[in-house]
Each structure stands twice: as C-alpha cells, then as structure tokens.
C-alpha cells in the first residue's frame, strides 16, 4: 500500500513527496483532509485506535487521512471514508487550514488540512486498525467538552470543530 504523502507549500501547491512517517518525523507540511459528518444536531466522531503512533485513544472527526500522490482530493476522501468508516455519502469542502503540532521531539503533525462536511444518518462500520469507537455527540455537549476537556480530542479537531459547527449553523 502506498504510504507516501504530498508535500505542499503554504498555498497547497505540491513541492514533492515523502513517506508518511518521514513527513511526520521531520514536520514537513503535507496535504491532508478531515471529514465531519452530522445529522440534525449531532456530530459523528471517532475515537482513534489506541495503537496509532500519535493521538491514539483521542476523539476526532469522522475520518481523516492523506491523499496519495496523483490522487484527486475528492477521490481520496471517498476512498478513505469507505475504508475507514464503511460510509458512502456526499460531502463537500467547506474550508481549509494549516496547523502544526509537536507530539514529541521527532513527531509532528504539520498539515494543510482540507475540511469536508456532509450529512449522514446511519451507523458506521469502523476499521478496527483505524478506529476504536464511534459516537454521536450533540453540538452542545461537544462545545462543552471542548471547553472543559480539550485534551480528550486530537489537536486538529480542537481547531476545526468549532468552525465546522459555525458552518453548519449558518447553512
């Protein structure tokens, strides 16, 4: 399986490739995506598998990953949503952002993250290699938990979720 990621500049223009591990060890900026699915006033969030090399056991959005070199972003989103969560549904990109988080001396997330949003009503089929659990959380409970216990959530989720909730409320 191809584990290469697309290295980008601050304008999301490709500047090369690296293995996922190399990019995360060096802190290279690379293209990523985050999918948020909701139904009515609830968001579908996942608990990352405990054995993941970073953020294991933390709660995050429905699906997140990286497109492969040469793969269209939208194709990667559909592919990973199906592989990781067993879900097929329409999503659209609503915003993007750049963030950098240091987990350890030689472990970083430095991503140009494209955020996708979609409505979904159903039960996911999680890949246990990726996902420990799923849960539906009300927008109100999520806002409270992010304010009171942000350490339970992945760092990119803490940044993106409030903005996603604003997008949903404005639609």
In brief:
With 171 residues, the protein is α+β, with helices and mostly antiparallel strands.
Give your account of this protein's structure.
This protein is of the alpha+beta class and 171 residues long. The chain has one domain (4-170): Nucleoside Triphosphate Pyrophosphohydrolase, CATH 3.90.79. It has four helices and nine strands, in the order ββαββββαβββαα. The strands form two sheets. Strands 3, 4, 5, 6, 7, 8 and 9 form a seven-stranded mixed β-sheet that branches. A two-stranded antiparallel ribbon has the order 1-2. The mean pLDDT is 94.
Helix and strand topology:
Elements (H helix, E strand, L loop, with lengths): L3 E5 L5 E6 H7 L3 E10 L2 E7 L10 E2 L2 E3 L7 H13 L6 E13 L2 E13 L11 E8 H10 L6 H16 L1
Parallel strand pairs: 3-8
Antiparallel strand pairs: 1-2, 3-4, 3-6, 4-5, 4-9, 7-8
